Amino acid sequence: MKFDRLLPLALLALISSGTAVLAQDAATSGNLSIEINDLAPSDKGCKLTFIAANGLPQSLTKASFEFVLFDQKGLVERMAVLDFRDLPAGKTKVRQFDLPGTKCEAVKSLLINDAPVCAGDGIAKDACMKVLKTGSKSSVELKG
């Protein structure tokens, strides 16, 4: 009977330790990853949702990226600098941006062209682009 009570606790401990290992791996990846998670129509135009994970040992006090939006024909629809604000070391943040006048269905792909701001203690200005990894969970491709 004691075994029946201990088994759920043992499973919970095992799951918790696995989650801690995954979080530790993400925190020490040495990469800055940005993933496009969703595009959705909004009152203003198109709302972009990104997942940003800072796997660097240092926090970014401010990071912004120049995005190029390509339409269905592969033509540049617009360029925009999006401010991701602070990205603490070892943390994942969700950031959303409304692009006025942009229709989500017109966006085929995105390119992170540059990081005009990449700041933090011991962070070189070009560090964000050097360690950038991109991905997409949506039908829109994100390149870096």
Question: Low-confidence stretches at least 5 residues in length (pLDDT < 50)?
Answer: 6-26
Count of DSSP strands? 8
Helix content: 10-25%
Using the alpha-carbon principal axes, give the shape.
elongated
Task: Count up the helices.
Answer: 2
Reading side by side through the largest sheet, how are the strands ordered? 5-2-1-7
* N to C succession of SSEs: HEEEEEEHEE
Overall pLDDT score: 85
Rounded to an integer, what's the Rg over CA atoms? Answer: 19 Å
Percent of residues in beta strands? Answer: over 45%
- Structural class per helix/strand content? alpha/beta
Ends apart, CA distance between termini: 56 Å
Query: Biggest sheet, open or closed, and with what strands and sense?
Result: 4 strands, mixed
What does this structure look like?
The protein is an alpha/beta fold. Helices cover 21% and strands 49% of the residues. The strands form two sheets. A four-stranded mixed β-sheet has the order 5-2-1-7. A four-stranded mixed β-sheet has the order 4-3-6-8. It is elongated.
Quick overview:
The chain is of the alpha/beta class and 144 residues long. It has helices spanning 2-27, 127-130; strands at residues 32-41, 45-54, 60-70, 76-87, 92-100, 109-119, 132-136, 141-143. The protein has a 4-stranded mixed sheet. A 4-stranded mixed sheet has the order 4-3-6-8.
